[in-house]
Amino acid sequence: MKKLLRNISFVAVLLTGLSACTEADPEYTDFPSKDVDFIYSVAPNSDGEVEYALDYYVVSTIQFTNTSAKDGSVTWDFGDGVTSNEENPQHKYAKAGNYNVKLTVEGVGSRTYPLMIYDIAPVLSIKEQSSDIITINDVTVDFDIFLPNPENKRVKYDWIFPEGTMTEDGQEITTFSGYADENGNVEYPGKLKFRNIGSQRITIQTTFDIDGENRRLEDSYVNVQVGADKEYPTLYYAVLDGNINAMKIIPADQLPEGTKNLPFDMGVSSGSMPFNLVYYDDVEGNGWIYILDAGKQYTYINDEAGTNGDGRINVMSVDGSSVNVMVTNVGQTAFNDPFYGCIDGDNMLYSDRNTGLRTTSLSARGETEKSNYFVQNDQLGYYSRTIAYGSITTGIYKDSKGMYWWGKCYAGQCILRFKSTDIVTDYASASEPYEPVLASTTLKAFTLDEDRNALYVWRTKTNGGFYKYDIPAESATVTRDQFTFSEEMDADPINTTADEGVYVTQFAVDKESGNVYFGFNSVDKDYTTGLKYFDYANNKIVDVPAVTDKILGIVVNNNKSKLF
User: Fold this and answer.
1) Contact 91, 84 (CB under 8 A)
2) Do 501 and 470 meet the contact criterion of CB atoms below 8 Å apart?
3) What is the pTM of this model?
4) Which residue range is the domain that position 528 belongs to?
5) CA-CA distance, 19 to 27, in Å (whole number)?
6) Cβ(316)–Cβ(289) under 8 Å?
């Protein structure tokens, strides 16, 4: 209990006159002392047991005990308009909130402590499941409700189930009403199973003390993560102003009849501007999702003090159960926030806004940005030729031959290529190591599918949209008009800065099908916002109707699993 220590001393003022003397009324002043003091705790119930001793709920009776060193008549003010003159009173609060409880001992002083009273709310959880992994149609789930109710008031629970919820015998169930009686016995809907893949959200609406107060409590819900009946890759994507979501990549002809493939809410925040997600398997076989969040301040700012940085890289386990900060740039130079990244051996290679590419060990946790550069703009022969000072990064990719592909959208629009041996200390005496790809093309997201010799690019401004090119040989290049597929579709720049629009920030390739997934935020009436993919086999852009969120970073975990 955090106590605000205040003590009171009595000040007497003696006034003298010609014929009489008068003693003034007592005046109380706070000073640190134990002359006046008290403690409080949750009172035992009728059986002498203390329930919910660590929290103070609206349903709890609070015992206040006067521990003052000096005696006198007492007055308690519980901060909710109720007072008492008992020596050691009990009190129950009707509403949640912060209260200042004051004990006054006449002729001595007073003391005040803060007391936070919490409202009660049910907690819905999974009690038992018939298999370690919950999969569609056959694995059953039992639920449990926890609600602080020391007086065993009667409670009504109205359950709301998502589409595709079934009883153990396969009957569709959409709602259920159950009660908790005076003895604490709760009625449950029984064992349930699910027809659809994804986060199945079950909600309970609670009415407390139905024979008296009849008060509606805050709703409670649980997301039941329901996996597929077979193993498939998993797509992860960052919802703008939302959470990291996941979705199984299942061919339509392999989805069981009547089953929908819906997204999983991983319960982990995407951050402010999650431009990239990066997947990595560690040496122990654990999968991790790296969330590169450029922060709210990702466009140009005059950061003279070097304190406007608010970006970070967070690391999430594939099931969302573990989240850590890898590296943070909060409170440092704004342009050093992490924007785009890729795996480079045991390191994360990631870009700042417009200076270069940094490197940090993939095992790093809780670090502060140290600007450990792998390469900067002026350490390549492209500098002061193809690109200039302030050249803004749009993405980074390392191919299987050790070639780095570095996208630029300002002060040199193109994709640069280089190997580690091309990094120099004197750009003026160095030549361009390779011919730039898509010279004078303003682009954002790009990626390679080396197995299918395909380069995918999101172009902006003139003829903006999704483009496919052949991957050029090291000794060759490709120009903006040499595409093999295009779909012009205007994406939302999100901001009004001419050269720093967001548009589409990342592509993710499903290795098995060759399909290319991306989030599309529409400003075009012919296209809707949400998850889309390039259907490699049929050469067309396809909507994923189940996902209509605004999406930025996106990545595929090609390791197959039923869940994550």
Assistant:
1) yes
2) no
3) 0.88
4) 232-561
5) 25
6) yes
Residues 6+ apart with CB under 8 A from 48: none
The encoded tokens of residue 464 equal 């903006």
- Does residue 255 form part of some domain? yes
Contacts of 80 (CB under 8 A, 6+ apart): 93, 94, 95, 99
Last residue of a domain, one of 58, 89, 117: 117
Q: Are 311 and 441 in a shared domain? A: yes
3-state secondary structure of 427: helix
Say if residue 428 is exposed, middle or buried (CB neighbours under 10 Å; 0-12, 13-18, 19+).
exposed
Put the strands of the sheet holding 287-293 in their side by side order.
274-281, 287-293, 312-317, 323-328, 367-368
| SS3 label, residue 393 | strand
Q: How many H-runs (helices) and E-runs (strands) does the chain carry? A: 0, 44
Residues 188 and 262 in one domain: no
Share of the chain above pLDDT 70, in %: 94
- Domain membership of residue 2 (yes or no) is no
Same domain, yes or no: 160 and 245: no
**3 part of a folded domain:** no
pLDDT per residue over 120-163, tens digit each? Answer: 999 999 999 999 999 999 999 999 999 999 888 999 999 999 99
Domain count, the chain: 3
CATH of the domain at 77: 2.60.40.10
Farthest CA pair distance, the chain: 115
Tens digits of residue pLDDT in 486-514: 999 999 999 998 889 999 999 999 999 99
DSSP secondary structure string for all residues of 315-346: EEETTSS-EEEEEE-TTS-GGGS---EEEETT
Kindly state whether residues 267 and 375 are assigned to the same domain. Answer: yes
Contacts of 537 (CB under 8 A, 6+ apart): 513, 514
Write the single-letter amino acid at 404. Answer: Y
1 found inside a domain: no
Kindly state whether residues 63 and 146 are assigned to the same domain. Answer: no
Both 291 and 252 in one domain: the answer is yes
Token duo for residue 7: 């003590």
Phi, psi (deg, nearest 5) at residue 427 = -65, -30
- Unique residue bearing structure tokens 């920030």: 505
Residues 190 and 306 in one domain: no
Q: Are residues 136 and 98 in the same domain?
A: no
Task: Give the CA distances from residue 96 to residues 56, 117, 149, in Å, rounded to whole numbers and listed in that order.
Answer: 9, 5, 15
Per-residue exposure over 192-213, b if at least 16 CB sit within 10 Å of its own CB, e if not: bbbbbbbbbebebbbbbbeeee
- Quote the CA–CA distance of 120 and 97 in Å, as a whole number: 12
Which one of 226, 245, 280 terminates a domain?
A: 226
Burial readout 431-456 (b: 16 or more C-beta within 10 A, e: otherwise)? ebbbbbbbeebbbbbbbbbeeeebbb
Strand pairing report for 287-293 and 312-317: antiparallel
CB–CB of 398/344 below 8 Å?
yes
